[in-house]
Amino acid sequence: AHPDIYATGMCQLLQSGWVSSYLKGKRSRPRTISAATPLTGALALRMDAGVAGGARGEGGVAIMLRMDDIVRQAIAKWPNVPHCYGWLGLDARGNWYMRDDRAQALGAFASGAPGAKGSLLRHEKLIDFIQRNYEADADGQWFFQNGPQRVYVELEVTPWVWRVAPDGSVAAHTGQSARARELLIDEAGRVYLVTDLGLGLVHTQDVGAVADAVEQGRWQPRQVSLAELPARHGFVPSPQARRGGKTPGP
């Protein structure tokens, strides 16, 4: 298979039913790869191999080294596959959304326009696969590494969404543990934690646990402006907008 086919077909695969059918075991791996079914089979949908670990990049950007072995092998084999923009989003509650052409035409992921978010992902194995292969590039753009192709993620607010337990322990929407370093509150009352993984929004259901921690003197909040957070903490809310709004297509 030639890597050029990934430039146009990957994003269509993300919003098709092929992935879910494969993960449920209803379809076998294709013997040939076409523009309609790129990054499939051993290239992207194996769930049984993973590498744990992590590191932090410049400016506090978290670079997660949890990528599946099979994905690393695909990157080595096809290092120059074009990237995909606009088709995947992470909302303020840590949910993943697939965004087809229609959803993207309705507006930006974080615009609040009806339908612009796309379709909520519910398949647990697919979500786990995305979260294991979720990283940031040197510019602070977050992406899902699907085989040899980067699928850049549109962020509703931040690249991490934190769950906070009553004892103050913190976990990301990906399930990774984090150590809180600073508590921030913006002009709209949204609550953030700066951690060893980077900046993230506290899930609305856990704001009460944060308030308890403040009352107990464990954390002291600092007021910030939402607009300053991306530059200060080194992340790009919309890689698609940064690229100019263009998305690869057939």
Word description of this protein:
This protein has 250 residues and is of the alpha+beta class. It is built from 8 helices and 15 strands. It has helices at 6-14, 18-23, 69-77, 101-106, 124-132, 207-215, 229-233, 239-243, and strands at 55-56, 62-63, 84-90, 96-98, 119-120, 134-136, 142-146, 149-155, 160-164, 170-172, 177-178, 180-185, 191-195, 198-202, 221-223. It has a 7-stranded mixed beta sheet. Strands 5-4-3-8-7-6 form a 6-stranded mixed beta sheet. A two-stranded antiparallel ribbon has the order 1-2. β13 and β14 form a beta hairpin. The longest helix has 9 residues, at 6-14. The chain starts with 5 loop residues before the first helix and ends in a 7-residue tail after the last helix. The relative contact order is 0.16.
Descriptive key words:
250 residues; alpha+beta; globular; disordered N terminus
In short:
With 250 residues, the protein is α+β, with helices and mostly antiparallel strands. It has helices at residues 6-14, 18-23, 69-77, 101-106, 124-132, 207-215, 229-233, 239-243; strands at 55-56, 62-63, 84-90, 96-98, 119-120, 134-136, 142-146, 149-155, 160-164, 170-172, 177-178, 180-185, 191-195, 198-202, 221-223. The chain contains 8 helices and 15 strands.
